[in-house]
Queue: 4 jobs
Job 1
Amino acid sequence: MTVAVAWGGLPARFRRLPVVGRLVLAVALTMSLVLAGAAGLVYWRVETALDGQLDEDLATYQQSLNHAVRDGGALPSGPDGSLHQVLDAHGRVLRSSDTVRDQRLLTPAEGAAVAQGATIRRDVGSLLPITPGTLRLRAWRVTAGGQTRVVVAAVQRGHRDEALRELLAQLALASGLTLLAASYVGYRAARAALRPVERYRRGAAALAADAEDARGLRLEVPTDRDDEITRLGHTLNRMLGRLEASAAREHQFIADASHELRTPLTLMRAELDVALHRPRTAEELTGTLRSVDTEVRRLVTLANALLDLEQLGSGEHIERTPIDLGRLLDDASAPYRAAAEREERTLTLDHDRATVHVDPRWLEPAIGTLLDNALRHGSGAILLRAESRDGRLRLSVADEGTGFPPDFLPHAFDRFSRAEASRTTPGTGLGLALVAAVAASHDGTAHAENTPSGTTVMIDIACASPEPAA
């Protein structure tokens, strides 16, 4: 249970480390595994080669002892430091090297097993910790003159063990230095890779701390490269731009609402104060209520226009659908035909036969606003023209009136901007601003101009089929 808890808490502690620390730790752990594997492979190959040489020397010595024991001759000397011992079937030492004399190299159990035909091979002493007199011995049975003999041959392992211990020390040193170097390189690489991220963080923090003074500022992103970090910087700049635009819309909305709503509310308050100041006749109260009703209607119209502009500014309420261009214009112009007939004016449609991808919920009111302006402020015939070319839809409403005042044209699509001649007529001053917002939400523009024959207001928007989502 304790081990499970310890291992279960490790990821949480790992996640609390800084990103650079996690990267360095991951590099260190990975390099440790790689180095351990490589060191293990090298050690195994060297150990195998040394053991092979040692076993080969022991096998050669064994063959010499076999011939000497069978022939009854003198036992030969083997490699430097080698030992031999000959025992009878009962484990008594018959002959041995001077260095061991009567000291038995085999246990009684091992001697009995060899006498029965088994072969014993084992090492005496250990590599680590260091022990003196390390051997590798082999014991086997030999029949000489009808007698069973147990022959033991042993060679020294000192040179082999010393070489392996030196190899372990060298591998540990090399692995340690390599691990330190890899960790340092990983640390420097991680710091270098994350330095732009930290710079972006500081820049974003500065922008957030002083939003007013930082308006229009962006993070510094290199232009001579295109990698993950620079793409992150561009994404953050786009996000900052959208946040700034959203804040600007919010400020504009609040400013417009506070400015334009104050006048009708003040008028309503004045009307009510006068009505409540002294007793009024039913006719006077009715007049007051009608005046208040007019201001309420104006407030509702103004609030709806402001909300429409806010929705269009956010760009999140546009849903393009395919619609026949002729049907779109018929639906948009239908409410204004009767008004044109009452004024004995003509309303003509001229359009291509095409299917366009737009949002009719917004485009129809925009066209209606242009027609309404032409009816109220213009004169003569009205021409609603539309043509679709190269994925763009160009709409225009032209009349034969006197046109816009020259100084008003640059501000025609500003909010609450009204020409002097139209200030005496009902309106909020948001009609053309709404038209411009609808055009912008469809990736287009709105434009007004005076012509020799009157006034023309144009909308140029994208109307191609939207690309399918990936």
Note: The chain has three domains: 22-162, 228-309, 318-462.
Job 2
Amino acid sequence: MTRHGSHRPVRLLLVLVLLGALAAVLVVWGPSWSSRLTLEGIPALGPECVVQTAGGEVGLDRGEAQRATTAVAIRDRGQEADTSGIDEAVLQRLAEGPPGDAGPSLSCRGSAAGDLLEQQVTPTGLTPRAERLREAMADVFGDQDLGGFAPGGVNRAGESTHNDGRAIDVFFRPVTEENRRQGWLLAHWLVAHAEDLDVQYVIFDDRVWSARSSRGLWWDYDAPAPGNEILRHLDHVHVDVLRGNPG
């Protein structure tokens, strides 16, 4: 009994050390692991969308997120918008961004449709899905500085959704805090409406959101070299739509 009992403190110490090491790893790598796990379809619990406000997280269903992001965009253009039933703290955070940093404030679960058919490029240089997205943005945000597509198509190096006519760049130049705030108004609106508009990716300001993420978290965007303002998507919001399956 004495010999067996003497091993218990050592085993307990080893367990505590291993738990401590695991906790440290999760603190450092947790967000990265979370992003990778969600891409594998692990289901998430809780509200469909979340807004980080000064008072903490506020959960919204998708319809509420769509109403909130649309109202903020319309009010930013100096027009009246219906904000009844929407938490004022949500509207304020979406309109102003976090204090000192116009980064992401809203996240929504991804919901990529799996029954879409692949589409061909139209004379505008966009697929019908991408054209529908462009029209929806114009209805809410008015005239925008657009790029990334052209009649007859574009031919960018490597694999690019721009080459398929599925991507649009919305420019906010020069890179300033006000333009970053404006960019996030659009980025949040796109995420909230991603399910209805078949959005696949939204990339802006060193962040990326994916419709294939069941938790819908934003994560760091790994820009290719040389990592300038354009490649880091600091001066424009990139949005593309789902390809669909071959008919």
Note: The beta strands are 49-53, 56-60, 106-108, 146-147, 167-171, 199-204, 207-210, 219-220, 236-241.
Job 3
Amino acid sequence: MTALDANGRKAAARTVARGRTLWTACAAHALHDGYTDLIYLLLPVWQAEFGLGYGALAFLRGLAAATMAGLQVPAGRAAERLGGRTTLALGTVLAAIGYLLAGYSAGLAGLCVALVVTGCGLSTQHPIASAAVSRAYQDDARGPLGTYNFAGDVGKAAIPGGASLLLVMMSWHQMVWFLAALGAVVAVAVAVFFPANLRPVSLGKKAEGRASGAHGGFPLLLAIGILDSSVRMGFLTFLPFLLKEQGASLSTIGSALALVFIGGAAGKFACGWLGARFGVLATVLVTEAGTAAAILSVLVLPLVPVLALLPVVGLMLNGTSSVLYGTVPELAPSGRTDRAFAIFYTGTIGAGAIAPILFGILGDAVGSHGAMMATAITAAAILPLAIALSPRLAAKASAHAPVTPAD
């Protein structure tokens, strides 16, 4: 065998391993995000079944979100000790067990236990799968990370949508058991196909210096991610009320939200690749300035133009996130990609849970239009942060060079 043939085989094997890593991560992301948003479908079912008030329902949703957000960093640490494949497979099984328990619940206490178990399992996916895709593709990871993020939106649409169809044919207990079985299938796929070696890579001195020099950029990136998540959740909180004020029916409001989510899925897929093509700064400036302008347009336009604009709003709202996720590996403190993703997701998921409360309090004080305008101002506030981040990314790019791992 010639050296050329050997190199060709190695390149082919690397391509296969990359593809296997990406699509397994996408499957896990779709399932976990689908499990997360399935709760929205189940809340009215639980309200009717157990006679729960809105406060109790809000507590259930917050409990699952808080558990998932709070355990991102511990999940990353568990992956360092047990390996990413084992941790993600166990987390997927745990999430499925949580829904299995929910099917046996007889009231609020049982649902609380079930959602805490599910939240524990869901906390493993984002830091581990993101880091795996990042390591598989390295400097070319922006586009694949966009695909990975797009898969999460597919799961958000497919699993609650499929569950609503299953509810026509079976009880909600049987439906969650069926989806728990689906989780077990995905867990087996993770155990078989996900890469085993996800432990931190030993870096040479040059790489360590580069990672250390990028450290100053990570807090800025995290701040941008927190504000971006806050804008997205604040907008979605008040959009139904604005549409209702314009005379939209409940079915129209549902269709409007679907338009936003469709645009959001497209934004996550496209902007990851656009970030790789045109750079982080240009993409973030366009998406955040576009978000602010689109939100202000929603405030002043009549209903029909607003509906036409909503897919573009969704694209802008969600597009930034793919660019930010793709930048995490570049600015990970000390090169610890798993830990950086865990911290980043803790901040963004936590902001997504807290922001609707803060904007809701503001809305009570200044009205829905004033609160929506505050989301546009928050989007505009990201622009100077992105400009401040740009020199750190430029320094990272200028310092980049092939690095041989230390022995």
Note: Residues 199-215, 400-407 have pLDDT under 50 and may be disordered.
Job 4
Amino acid sequence: MSNEHMRAQELHARLNASPVRGVTFPEPPTRKQVSGGRKAWKVRGVCEVCGETKEYWVDNILFGKTTQCTCSRGVKHGGSKGAKRHNLAAQRWAERYDAILQRCRNPRNPQYADYGGRGIELRFESRTAFVLYMLAEYPDVSPTGLEIDRVNNNGHYEPGNLQLVPCRVNLRNTRRNVLVEYEGLSVVASDLWHLLRTDYPDMTLGRSRTTKLALEGIHWSDIVSRNGRGAYTPGKLDIVDPDIVALYRSPLDPTIH
């Protein structure tokens, strides 16, 4: 076995252990002629995200200059004319994975106490596995404006327990919110007024008073029957938000947990 062949095998082993995201190297690298008459090592890598086979400079990988396929890197820095549409979504999912990873595994992350600190785990074998899963589950959906929510709020980030929800829904799916019962629904206490005011337009209590009573454990039927002092004068916050009502009324929206 020649020295060059042995060197190629050694580099191949190092490449397979490199931190290049989502790229595999099925064959050992080869030396190729470059400018100035010298030779340099290049290797063919297959991207698991875009499916393309491309050539990479081995030195750039080993010295940390190349960390991912150019399809993701190009989109991250503004995209390119040749970028495929799904690459943008892949990059966004990859960014979500990184954020979840920090919340679940980095004790110095400000959100760690609410996630990793209470046993919530990220149960995907790799960043690429997560991206491919999300692309398969939501092939025609852009993650922009949506957030990844756990169906079981006490469960893990794992296949089968993830759903996409608008930000306003995800903010309501937290342990800090106090839930009250209203006609078989679990409603965030601060949202109850919007539903009551919609169903009982003659109700005279304002939003803040309704929320306070709900937090005190007063049943919604008792809240409706109470009268405010004098004629009802809506306050600045006493405006029914149809989007909040739709969260509980639309069959297309996820159930509030």
Note: The two ends are 64 Å apart (CA to CA).
